[in-house]
Amino acid sequence: MFDLGSSFVASVARDPDALALVDGELRLTYRQWYGRISALVASFDRIGLKAGNHVVTLLQNRWEAATLHWACQFAGLIITPINWRAKADELDFCIDNAEARAVFYHDISADAVKNSARADGLKRIAVGMNADRDLAFADMAKGSAPDAQPRVGADAWSIMLYTSGTTSRPKGVPRRHRAERAAAIAHVAQNLYGRSERTLGVMPLYHTMGVRSLLAMSLIGGTFICLPRYDSRQALALIERERISNLYLVPTLYHDLVNHEALPSTDISSVRKLGFAGASMTDGLLRKLAEVFKPDLFVNHYGSSEIYTFTIDQNAPAKPGSAGKAGINQHVKVARINARSADELAAPGEEGEIIASLAGDEAFEGYWRRPEADAKTLREGWYFTGDSGFMDTDGDLFVTGRVDDMIITGGENVSPVEIESCLSLHPAVSEVAVVGLADEKWGKIVAAFVKRSRPVSEAELEKFCRTSGLANFKRPRRYVFVDAIPKSPVGKLLRRLLVAGEYEAERLPPPDAA
């Protein structure tokens, strides 16, 4: 299989004059972009970076970040992107853990680098800004250089992503060139991308969704249109101006997009393919997106940083909640909760833990220097995801949440996702998150945290759940109206913050009682 550098060279030969990268007024063809990438690789040599070195980045989705990603693939550097919002101590951990040799940052992450105890010992490269004693990315990427040639093969490490680390230190997920390219090819196939697709490059390049969009576009002569930080008005403007043909976002960003005041006056007709991942999408949002975009394809992609694709459903609105069947490079099963072996399988309709084969082309091989994490999640050739779900009688997978998020109330297992999907269909519910709160009698009670789009009472919501057919033991026993649902930087619900009481109660006056 090609390494990623060889893959890009082939793309340049195939589509030299195709538009590859857009960032504001900057527009680069594949041939022009290759020139910038080559100049950067030559600069790596001048500052002493060598194949196998880790370089940490704290960058938004700018042209420099996309160019750096590709230059690392040619040079054999292991790009190690972290959230540009990271604090100094988080940066220090990643620098130590990866034994990084360089750090790339820009103004929004400059304070973290300045206050970092470990960054001083590294090559520090400032992107899009002046920094007195640090190297300037602009100088490294300008001028001419011989065309860069790939220096590593398909078995070399390409990237190391870090998991979110909600309960412990983040875990490094190293991935090889061949796994990254296999995932990109599968992404093209499973989303039915054609030549010259144009995608909105807003999912961050420290997240597997952003990386997949970047690599997939290169395979088809497509265009990666940078949006450094998500803003619905800017996203809509780019869709109209650049005639974007596909979107690949987390549900939270779709929610903000279709509820923005600028939507009715924006021409979104160029968007024919929708894809989402990163979290389940409620029935209400699925319905609204289908109505607004009327897409030719609407893909629910379920996966992770460790194994990019678990399952794919290419017609998400037809079977709300379904994550579909295994992707073309994968095999998935549902094991019983707390199973000791991958052979202890749940019956159809029985909730269990989702597991995925490590033999797939997209799979990682284990966490970076975390043998205890490997021992917990990698067993008998299977990756135990920690996600809960079940297979229906058609063989379609339904993801119900995290095993740790399961609410056990009065001895019954309750999935938060099912209740969230039910409540999302009420016209007054803008967003909803469901958690279990400690209760002396029931162990835990089901609590729904609701962001309202208009006045609605608890009694109305209770009636709605009852008439929807939601089982009595699943219906929320408590409603909390909030101004915002806490989420991670990539839009995942942070249920633990709701359980801990870390949320903003609604400041609006209470609605009239039903």
- Report the end-to-end length measured between terminal Cα atoms: 63 Å
Proportion of residues in extended strands: 15-25%
Outline type: globular
List how many beta strands DSSP finds.
26
Largest sheet: 10 strands, mixed
CATH superfamily of the largest domain: ANL, N-terminal domain
Structural class: alpha/beta
Task: Output the CATH topology of the largest domain.
Answer: Rossmann fold
Q: Into which percent range does the helicity of residues fall?
A: 25-40%
Question: How many whole angstroms does the radius of gyration measure?
Answer: 23 Å
Query: Mean pLDDT, as a whole number?
Result: 93
Count of separate DSSP helical elements: 15
Outline the low-pLDDT stretches: none
CATH class group of the largest domain: Alpha Beta
Number of domains: 2
Q: Which architecture name of the largest domain does CATH use?
A: 3-Layer(aba) Sandwich
Descriptive notes:
By secondary structure, this protein is an alpha/beta fold. It has two domains: about 5-390, Rossmann fold; about 405-500, GMP Synthetase, Chain A, domain 3 (2-Layer Sandwich), CATH 3.30.300. It has 15 helices and 26 strands. The strands form six sheets. Strands 12, 13, 14, 15, 16, 17, 18, 19, 20 and 21 form a ten-stranded mixed sheet that branches. Strands 4-3-5-6-7 form a five-stranded parallel sheet, sandwiched between helices. It has a four-stranded mixed sheet with strand order 2-1-11-10, sandwiched between helices. A hairpin with a 2-residue loop joins strand 22 and strand 23.
